[in-house]
Design goal:
The complex is a heterotetramer, with 2 copies of chain A (331 residues) and 2 copies of chain C (213 residues).
Chain A (H helix, E strand, L loop, with lengths): L10 H12 L4 E4 L2 E7 L9 E8 L16 E7 L5 H11 L5 E6 L2 H16 L4 E6 L18 H13 L4 H13 L1 E7 L19 E4 L10 E4 L3 H15 L7 E8 L5 H18 L2 E8 L9 E8 L2 H8 L2 E3 L2 E3 L1
Parallel strand pairs in A: 3-4, 3-5, 5-6, 10-11
Antiparallel strand pairs in A: 1-2, 2-4, 7-8, 7-12, 8-9, 10-12, 13-14
Chain C lengths: L5 E2 L1 H29 L4 H19 L4 H15 L4 H14 L7 E2 H19 L9 H16 L4 H18 L23 H15 L3
Antiparallel strand pairs in C: 1-2
Helix pairs in contact in C: 1-2, 1-8, 2-3, 3-4, 4-5, 5-6, 6-7, 6-8, 7-8
Classes of the chains: A alpha/beta (331), C mainly alpha (213).
Bound molecules: adenosine-5'-diphosphate (2 copies) and magnesium ion (4 copies).
The site of one magnesium ion has 6 residues of chain C, from loops.
Amino acid sequence: MRRLINDPYDVVEEMLEGFCKAHSKYVHLYENDGRVVVSNLAPVKGKVGIIIGGGSGHEPLFLGYVGENFADAAVIGNINTSPSPESCYNAVKAVDAGKGCLYLYGNYAGDVMNFDMGAEMAAEEGIRVETVRVTDDVCSSKNIEDRRGVAGDFFVFKVAGAKAAMGADLDEVKAAAEKANANTRSMGVALSSATHPATGKPIFEMEEGDMEIGMGIHGEPGVRRDKLQKADKVVEEIMSYIIPDLPFITGDEVAVLVNSLGSTPLMDLHICYRKVAMILEEKGIKIYRSFVGPYATTMDMIGMSITLMKLDDELKQLLDYPCSTPYFTIK
Amino acid sequence: MRRLINDPYDVVEEMLEGFCKAHSKYVHLYENDGRVVVSNLAPVKGKVGIIIGGGSGHEPLFLGYVGENFADAAVIGNINTSPSPESCYNAVKAVDAGKGCLYLYGNYAGDVMNFDMGAEMAAEEGIRVETVRVTDDVCSSKNIEDRRGVAGDFFVFKVAGAKAAMGADLDEVKAAAEKANANTRSMGVALSSATHPATGKPIFEMEEGDMEIGMGIHGEPGVRRDKLQKADKVVEEIMSYIIPDLPFITGDEVAVLVNSLGSTPLMDLHICYRKVAMILEEKGIKIYRSFVGPYATTMDMIGMSITLMKLDDELKQLLDYPCSTPYFTIK
Amino acid sequence: MYDDFILDKDYFIKVVEDIINLIEEQRDYLTDLDSAIGDGDHGFNLSIGFREVKKNLKDWQDKDLTFIFKKVGMTLLSKVGGASGPLYGSFFIKFGEAAQTKNEVNFKEFYNMFKAGIEAIEFRGKAKVGEKTMLDALKPGLDAFKDAIENDLEPKQAFEKFVEAAKKGAESTIPLVAKKGRAMRLGERAIGHLDPGAASSVMILEAFLKNMT
Amino acid sequence: MYDDFILDKDYFIKVVEDIINLIEEQRDYLTDLDSAIGDGDHGFNLSIGFREVKKNLKDWQDKDLTFIFKKVGMTLLSKVGGASGPLYGSFFIKFGEAAQTKNEVNFKEFYNMFKAGIEAIEFRGKAKVGEKTMLDALKPGLDAFKDAIENDLEPKQAFEKFVEAAKKGAESTIPLVAKKGRAMRLGERAIGHLDPGAASSVMILEAFLKNMT
Ligand SMILES: Nc1ncnc2c1ncn2[C@@H]1O[C@H](COP(=O)(O)OP(=O)(O)O)[C@@H](O)[C@H]1O
Ligand SMILES: Nc1ncnc2c1ncn2[C@@H]1O[C@H](COP(=O)(O)OP(=O)(O)O)[C@@H](O)[C@H]1O
Ligand SMILES: [Mg+2]
Ligand SMILES: [Mg+2]
Ligand SMILES: [Mg+2]
Ligand SMILES: [Mg+2]
């Protein structure tokens, strides 16, 4: 194993302790629940509470985006595993300012069950909690509502965070997040597995020199495995799934995210980005804003995903809206 | 090989093309030299030009820190290889606003030769260029002036960038950068090699399950190789070199950088950070501000480095000074 | 016959202890199963939960079965998370509720506990048999258990039928395409692999069987 | 004797072509040497530079030796970077300058070209013999070359002495602790490894020897 950890059963707690110390200007752990990372500004008067969350191992997702004008809290599960209903509920208690809260997370069976139970608990207390599940991974299902959420989480969360920061009510925030989700499509490629700290072993097997197109951010198998191709070829193939899916068409304006799954150098990401930009240019799709780096990872997995979000004026404004968190800041 | 590239001889050019497209709000390539990444704001009237640079493969160092109130230009070499004298000189041409320029880079034989030749060329044109070489790697030599620059680059560059942005003259900016360098100490550990894209092979051999304490950011061997230990042990050992070296003592205030060498998950970095904070607390050294993430990498190397900078009021102010670049922003 | 067959608290405590040990022993096996078709963590997830159960079991032992299994379930719910946390969590909570705060139950009540627990899994997960989940083991198992009781089999024999059918059900997941959980989107590629949740369900049932005299 | 031994432009062009090929062939070998004690790129660095030389050599061929080697040197300087770029770059620029814009040189002038080139490496790198760099090959080589000329050896024989001594010098780096370049901070651990720059220097000299008639 090539991981720097102590006892594998303590990784999440130790990470959270380190995180809240390192970024104490932004966040702290909720006093009643060590799995709820709360913004120092929350609850923000007059603002809908933005609660994101999911399994650990995708850092900086989710906890890295808690702060000013983005998420108010992140609920933290075990590795690759949804947080508990109790923690989802506690997050509501921690950030609700009387305007209700929005749960935002990737659409996985486990997360749905746990967050839904959390919402039920909140409802019993009379706090309104709505939910938007991110479903951006084009190759995870034919039915959009069955699709998983991957790096598109970042766009949907950013939009929701900005909308809430602008003072919108829960229905408006939810509508903006739903629009962002409806306009967002992603797909990835993995060149390696990730190391589960408990077993010290890869969470699935993958030969050096292979790649898997469509791999999920928990290592869920993709659409096909093959010998690794040149970056341009790989990008072409991924784009050939993403573009017709929405579809993105000539005249559209998009935000682009070329995301590292953990261990892909920025060098490689920018080589991939270059090809993404060339393809979009060819198709007459205009790039409004781009993000390149590790935004939603799978621990030490080598790989990359591409996300496009089709923009209108509202989404542009929300994407550009200033925010300040440990792992994402717009001035 | 597990890298997403095209022709290995094109990696740097393709990366730069992708980079300048993705971050076109901040930077562009200098018209006369495809290896000089220039801030869109440069030359900034009345400001000393801040020029950073070195080999490729350390991204986001160097080019990721070009932008507002940080570096005005980055000069880009081949992988692990200093840029050419011509490019160092061209960077001066691109950003000098009449107040002279400061070269800032890690202290490596190749960089020294090339930047010095660049400075000679600038001097012939009557442009004053001063140099500060970063020498933060405690285990790279007994003599401080022989030491290499590693992740401490980030602190020294940040301080110089802020000082210049505040309108200081070249001597003042140089003095601030020299103070930052004199106050900064780093040391790292590698758990793997990095993959050179040309050969497709690791730049040196390292068995899974081993670690090398003191490894340099180009894979230069460190002080000892051993079986991988628990994170807390590794951090303890590294801190035992760093702390007595300056020395950092009770009552000091420091900035902390726990840096990924490329492929270390944020989870592991924060587990390491937790122990760094515990050790500093024990010693009565106060943490003023912390940075955790990939700031200076070695492509896909797995490993981590710790950097401490001792602060005074001026360094605090300069560290906190707002800036905005593709890979580092303070609001 | 079934009214006289009493399962007391000692029995249930031993079963829980056995489950704790089994999950620890089989952690890597279950995780390997999940590697093939999921995200490679099922064994680790359960071990996080049951380690916590182990820590606290002593403190619960004096209370009734409903209390004990509520605690077991709540622990899984809060410490495991994921898909298996709420599913097994709900299972144990409802399993205990059906014991109606007693300290021992007869065999008919014992059946009702399983019925309630498995229905809770169905309710939470909304899965159906044939979708390659733990239900593929539990549902046919429960049906066989019911049949056996209706046919007046000896208690232990009846429970053997439960486990047998659950095992067969688990194996039936091997050729299936998954329709729920993470394996869902695998399509054809899930074929040929045993579902990890079905495998852990069988282990849990075996702990109940083993301690039956 | 030395005045009559003329080395013409064809000779130098062939040498450059041979160097280009040698560096390409030996790229991975040189890189491996650098992996052991440096940063694993020496061969790749030189190949980037000499590939660029190869691209442009045709355009320079009509010009004099000073021009040609200035271009070779400038190309290495601007395309290679690192330590070896400025060192070999300076070497070739000064090597050419010593040819005083001629199209051919006699053997004495040929010696002066190497002298000027190697001095440029010394000037740029500030290294001394025994510090485990390319100079450990070039300096003793040049000394032997000078001795051979002072002793009136046949031109080709004299150059053989150069190469021989350079080879021995390169090998002498194996047991050394490095005092310059990246290997410097290796301490004892550099011991046992041939210096990559010394190795590439010998290759370059061999190309000069091979084409001598
Ligand atoms: N909706 C569902 N209904 C019943 N069982 C399910 C459902 N979704 C998943 N499972 C079961 O959960 C198991 C996976 O559990 P686990 O790996 O612990 O959770 P996760 O999928 O969150 O990583 C699957 O093998 C399957 O048996
Ligand atoms: N100061 C110096 N003087 C002479 N030669 C040097 C000096 N520094 C380094 N070298 C030579 O350069 C070689 C390394 O070149 P290369 O790997 O291309 O550059 P880098 O060290 O920048 O990666 C060393 O093997 C050594 O022979
Ligand atoms: Mg999981
Ligand atoms: Mg190098
Ligand atoms: Mg799983
Ligand atoms: Mg080298």
